[in-house]
Amino acid sequence: GFGAIALTAKGSLLGMPPSTLAEDVLRTASGSDYDTFLNVLLSNVTAPNVTEGQLQRTELQAHTEREVRRFETRRFAHFQGAAPLMRLIFAIAGGTGASISGQASILKADLVRRMRLQDTAVVLLMIAVYLVTLLVTANVAHHQAVNSSRVKYYADPRHHTAVVDSHEHEAFLEAFAQPPKNAFLHVAGLARASEDMPGTLNHGGDSYRVDFTFALDLSPWVVRELSPAASAGSPRAPASPPLEDGVVAEDLDSLKRFLLHDANDLATVELVKEVSWPCWEELAINIKHQIRQCDYEGVIGIDRTRRESVRIYKNKQWANFIHSRTLKVVLALSVVGWVLYVPYLWFKCSTLRVRCLYQVSIGIADYWQLIGDRLSAHGFEPFDAGAVGHRPPLAVLRGSHVAGEFFDEQEDRF
C-alpha cells in the first residue's frame, strides 16, 4: 500500500522512473512504521535533482498527504466492513496503535473509540472478578450449611439450646414447650430529679433518678395450664380456649399438620408462652403500700413477665444457608443483594403461631409471706445467709440502664 502511494506521488510530480521509485520503496519495506515511510518519501523530494524549489516541495508534500489519507480511508472502510464482533475484539485486544501525527488524523476518532472500549472492558472485568468472588464465598457458605446431625428442629441459638430429632408433636412440645425460665416480678422505684443531673431518665417530659430496682424470680412456680378450669378465679378464665396438655387445641392441630406435611424449608414455629397469675394485681398493691409505709415518696412501678416467645427453625441446608451471617455479609457487599433477599424472605418465610398457656401456681397470700417483711424504702432486703425455710430466688438488677428499659416498657403502669 505504501509502495503504491510512493510510486503515484513521486512519479506524478518528479517524473522519476518506476525502477528508481521501487528501489526507494524496497529500502523501506522492511519497516512498517508509517512516519518512517513518509520521511523516506519526503527525503526524495529534497534530492539534488529537484530544481523547482520550495514551491514544488510543498506541492509534493500536499499531494503525498492526500494519497495517504485516501489509503487510510480505504483501510478504515475495510475495517468497518468487518463483523461487529470482530471489530469489537480488534478494538479491545489490538492496543492503541501507533502515535497519531498530523499526517494521519483520520485515525484519531478510531483511536478514541478503542481507548473507551478498552477502559470499559477493564471495568467490566473488575466487576466480574468481584462478583465471582462473592459467588464463590456464597457457595462455600452453602456447603458449610450442611448439618449431618439427626436434629430436625432447633430453637433460636441466641436465646435457647433446645433441639429435637423427631417429627412427633409430643417430642416437639417436650423439647420446646417447657415452662418459661425467665418469669419475674419486676419492681422499680424512681424519684423526680433535675434535668442536668447525671444518670437521670427522661419520661413524659420529666426527669427521674433510679432509687432501686429488683426482680423476684417466679419460674419455680410456673407450671403448665392443663385445662381452662385450672385457672378459676382469673379474669381470663371465661375466655380461655380449649387446651390439650397446656396447648390451645386449635393450634395443636395446626402444629401436627406442620410437622408431618410442611415442605417449606424456611417455615418456622413460634411458641408463645403466656403466663397467668390470678389476682396478682392485689400483690402489686400490697407491695406499693408496704414501700410507702417505709416513707418512700417516689414513683413505684410493678409488673411481671406475661409471655415468652421461642422461635423454632428447621434444620435444613437451605434454611441454615439463608439465615447464615456469611450470606448476609455477601449480600451487603454485593450492594444490590438485599433488594432480592428481603422480598424473598417476605415471600417464602412463614410462621406458625402456637399458644401455650402457663400459670404461677403459688397463691398471692403465700407469696406475700415470703417477701412482705423484706420490702423497704431501699427496695428489697436480701435474705440472711442463715435463714431457714423456703425463699424465692432473687435477681437484683442495679443501674439506670436496666431501670430505664423497664420504665420505657411500663410507662402506663405507674
UniProtKB/TrEMBL annotation:
What species is given as this protein's source? Answer: Alexandrium catenella (Red tide dinoflagellate)
Q: Where are the transmembrane segments?
A: 76-100, 120-141, 326-347
Any keyword Membrane? yes
Q: What is this protein called?
A: Uncharacterized protein
The alphabetized UniProt keywords are: Membrane, Transmembrane, Transmembrane helix
Instruction: Tell me the classification of the organism that encodes this protein.
Output: Eukaryota, Sar, Alveolata, Dinophyceae, Gonyaulacales
